[in-house]
Amino acid sequence: MQKGVMRPGHVQIRVLDMETAVAHYRDRLGLIHTHTDSQGRNYFKGWTEIDAFSVVLREADEPGMDFMALKVLDAATLAARKQDLIDYGCQVETIPAGELDGCGERVRFDSPTGHWFELFAEKEQTGKWGVGDRNPDAWPEDLKGMKATRFDHCLLYGDDIDGTVDLLSSVLGFQLAEQVRDEEADLRVAAFLTVSMKAHDVAFVRHEEKGKFHHASFYLSSWEDVLRAADLISMHDIALDIGPTRHGLTHGQTIYFFDPSGNRNEVFSGGDYTYPDHPVVTWDASQLGKAIFYHDRQLNERFLGVVT
Ligand SMILES: [Fe+2]
């Protein structure tokens, strides 16, 4: 937080068919569908989120992630970090306020792994859906599907993960919470970064191609809800990747599946926390199976290789 970056703010995901995608994110994940903009993009939020939206779907010819955005404290922080990104050598572009409905000016920048990120300071705040912020009830009664509470993090695949870790750490104040290292090759294989107490706000896995999207993840309230998500995946014949299981990395309880366009989704609960004085947690690459799937202790080729 010392650089004024608070948290993930939104992710824009490309989908092949908007109608089936909206049904998936609204009725299966249980995100709140807030509206459709003049470009035909659809906006969603988890019911506990304060801001007006956190997921934007854009119809395109191939799936994947357009960008992931991080919310900063205020306009002065946005201007300061924009200059820092320029000084660091990033390609930086300013997207005017209102290009995404309800969102202020965004500062878009590239990264050594080929992913596009954004910073923004202002977004319309619509409050926790169905309960508000005055004497709020525990939860709204009419949630759908998996009842996703919030957009939590993305896992991204790319080549120069050390470069992106350096950029996000030195310019934006991210902390390396966990990593996978191959000591024989003296190589960092995966990096889990946080700007908060969460185990990760964004994570990276080393991969030969740039700019790949592994998953967007949504937080559920309990392990019981992860099991319930697994039931819903069967009830609706949603393509399953793996789970329900537990990660060694971050120790979250998790299940992975695919949206109708082939983008991977995760819903999870629990997991570790990170304070600024915590040492980096390191998993050895020789233990990668257990690090990723703590129970099976074996890698699944689809999990490693299928990205959009
Ligand atoms: Fe994840």
UniProtKB/TrEMBL annotation:
InterPro entries: Catechol_2-3_dOase, Glyas_Bleomycin-R_OHBP_Dase, Glyas_Fos-R_dOase_dom, VOC_core, Xdiol_ring_cleave_dOase_1/2, XylE-like_N. Keywords: Aromatic hydrocarbons catabolism, Dioxygenase, Iron, Metal-binding, Oxidoreductase, Repeat. Its EC number is 1.13.11.2. It catalyses: catechol + O2 = (2Z,4E)-2-hydroxy-6-oxohexa-2,4-dienoate + H(+). Its cofactor is Fe(2+). Belongs to the extradiol ring-cleavage dioxygenase family. This is Metapyrocatechase. It comes from Pseudohaliea rubra DSM 19751.
